[in-house]
Every structure is written in C-alpha cells, then in structure tokens.
Amino acid sequence: MHPRDIRLRRRCNSALARLDPPRPFSVTALCDQLAEQRRRPIHLHPLPAHAAAAGTCGMWLATETADHIFFEQRTGRLHQEHIVLHELGHVLLDHYALGPDGDAAAGLLPDLDPQLVHRLLRRTNYTTPQEKEAETLAGLIRTRAEAAGRRLDGVLGDLQAAMGVRG
C-alpha cells in the first residue's frame, strides 16, 4: 500500500474511532448526535437545482453558528445518505476549502450573504486528498453502522426483525 494511502486510512480510522454511530443507524440520527457533540446544529437541505446543474452533488457550508449540508435530491435514498455521510466526513476531518470553492457561495447560493460563510466545500470530483478522505470515511461509517446492526442475534435479533428495526 502506498504511504499516502496508509496516511489516509489512519486519518479516517482515527475520526471513525471518535464516533459511536447511533443504533438503529440513520443518517439523521448521526447528524443529531454530531450536532450535540459539536454544540452546533447540522441542517440538511436539498441541493439547489442550479448547483446540481453546475456539477455539484454535495456541499458543506459552515457559518459561525451552524453547519449546512446540501445533497442531490434527484437520486436514490441510499445515494443521498452517502452524499450526506461524505459531507459529514469533511466536517469530522476538519477540512477547509481549497482553491476556487472558497468563493463559490455567491454562484451556488446567490441569496446568501458571503460574509456569513466560514467554510464551503462542494463535491464535483474525487481527485483531491480531502475528497478521497471524506469518501473513505463515509464508506467506513456506513460499514461500521451496518456491522453494528448485524450484531443482534438470537431473541434480540428476532425482536428487532419483528419490530421492523434495522441497523
């Protein structure tokens, strides 16, 4: 494995170790948990159509008081959840905007006062180290949540299944 990939895995595993995904797992419950831990709300929003048309599928916008995660709404539920997990990856890894994304708020969210924006990261590709880290962490969060959901066996597992609760 390349040393760069080893560093990426270590950073993602370190961030994952600080998480205790809620059970049963849901992206909304994870957002609530992180908002409480970070003492700032996390708001989920559908991505504006013009931002999606510009090639953006997810975006994290941080203001002084809250985090806003935008996700593509014209895709399946699991893909929407993955986009949110990816953007949460940016939050958990404390990423900053690089290059022109820092000035993109005016074009993507024209009604937003640019002075309110502290950070803005949008995903249009997976080529930067930050995007690779966020994508890796999103996958690790989902894998851990699914593994935790499968741990209930026997009577507890039967009860969970009967109640329609999924991990």
TrEMBL record:
This is Regulator component. The lineage of its organism: Bacteria, Bacillati, Actinomycetota, Actinomycetes, Kitasatosporales.
